[in-house]
Amino acid sequence: MSFRIANPNKVIRIVTIATLSFLVCWGLAMVLMQVRPFWTDEWRLIYNLKFKSPVALWGPLDFTQQFPRVYLELMKAFTWLFDYSYFIMRLPSFLVGTATIFLCYHLMNKIYKPGKVSRFLFVFILVSSYTFTEYFVQVKQYSMEIFLSLVAIWQLLEVLEISAKGVRHKGRYALLCFSFLAAPFFSYTYPIAAAPIFMVAFLQGILLLRSNEETKKKMHILLLQWLPLFIAAMSIIVFYVIDVSHLMDDKEMHAYWSYRMIAGGSGVKHIIGKCWDFFAQVGSGLIFEIIFGVLGISAFAWGLYHGIKNSRTPKYDTGALLRLYCMLLVSLAIGLFIAGKLPVEPKFNAFTVPSIAVLIIFLLDNLGNAPAGRKVTTAITTILFIGLTGNVMTTALNVVIAPEYAKRMNIYVATENAIAHAQADKLPILITPGVAFPDAITVITPNFAPISAGSVLKTFPAYKVSENLPVYTINDLTKLKEKMKQLPASVTSVLAGDGISFKVINRYD
């Protein structure tokens, strides 16, 4: 007796919507309730947000940080208005992440036919990826980079549609132009994601010029297509001048990135291993890293084969041009790694995940078209749906069931209360590196500026910038007497603690 689902498309759609709803609700809970303490990556950026002026944010950032400056300035203005509260610090990434979910679902429906069950993998592969789930509500730029990687695909589809149908809605065309104008200023990886759009549009332009359309109509279509691309090119140039050029002049950042690029090794074996990692890191956990490593490389190889085969008898419909874009983007990212310009790490390569998803779905659909491969495709697709759904759920749960979570929350609550007490009584604070648990901030990473316990404490929401309460660092509370002697003579009492326990210490006790 065999079990068969009467309408698998409907079942998968319900599961997809339920999973996405859970993900949004989970993210909203992380924003509304103070249940996710900030950590080392966030502390470093929050410190810059709180203590650098808008003008100073255009220069080198403290603690070896990088962040698109226009986006950072908007974050600064927004969070300053609400005094850098927990809620307001987590809100921007959550809103961007939620917009990513909606845009991803919209693109799925735009790219694939309604009856295709495999189309839901486009959404699942993205939302279950490490970078999306890990940084969904974090004070970092990676949610925006994933969002803009989808925006680039939307822009490509809109540009391609102009050739086929012209500009049907002026408002939509204006939105396309505006998106090309604004997007570069919010992501360092968007210009990479946008580059293949120019290549695909150029190819489509050649095909258009070779067609039998009237010359006047051809010129009109090309003008409409290339105006937003011209805006994008100008915007990227301006972005380079006002942002990227300053980043490249940051010697500390340059030294750190150089170290990151050479730390893993070199040689052909290293490059091959990193190419495997490039595809494998789309999955989360050893089993799914292996699955995505095999699927990703196979999908890229199949896309390359199919592209070469198609070039003999060119039939460049929207689907073929989209796959060409995906192939070009993945090739560009791998090329940048080989050239030593882009590390192979999930958060730095997240902009390629949608393209890898498109290639994987194309591989599975082609494999499923063959009678011999239909059962294999069904099995792989089923495993992916179950595993990726489970990954979304377990990732959310792991936030609160991780072994160190209870202690992190104890530190967060105790330190927030201690800061409020110290500010009310005008007491300077003396804090140990224990406030940064479980991050070992005293361990030195080559070319990576360390952050002190005092700086970490200042990033807590309770610490008010306007109060400017003095905060000092001490490595060992058993040496309080010696440390008190080193403090300014005006400091007669301090509130000393390790992140959990705090007590008032008087200089002359």
Model description:
67% of the residues lie in helices and 3% in strands. β3 and β4 form a beta hairpin. It is mainly α and 509 residues long. The protein contains 20 helices and 4 strands. It starts with 7 loop residues before the first helix and ends with a strand.
List keywords for this structure.
67% helix
Mind sketching the topology for me?
Elements: H1 8-32, H2 40-51, H3 69-81, H4 86-111, H5 120-127, H6 130-134, H7 142-165, H8 170-182, H9 190-210, H10 215-249, H11 251-263, H12 268-280, H13 286-312, H14 318-338, H15 346-349, H16 353-369, H17 374-401, H18 405-425, E1 429-431, H19 453-458, E2 471-473, H20 480-486, E3 493-497, E4 502-506
Parallel strand pairs: 1-2, 1-3
Antiparallel strand pairs: 3-4
- Helices and strands, in order, run as HHHHHHHHHHHHHHHHHHEHEHEE
Strand content: under 5%
Runs with pLDDT <50, length 5+?
none
What kind of sheet is the major sheet?
Answer: 4 strands, mixed
Number of helices, where a helix is a run of at least 4 consecutive DSSP H or I residues = 20
Q: What is the rounded Rg? A: 26 Å
Overall number of strands: 4
Short structural summary:
The chain has 509 residues and is mainly alpha-helical. 67% of the residues lie in helices and 3% in strands. The longest helix is centred in the middle third of the chain and has 35 residues, at 215-249.
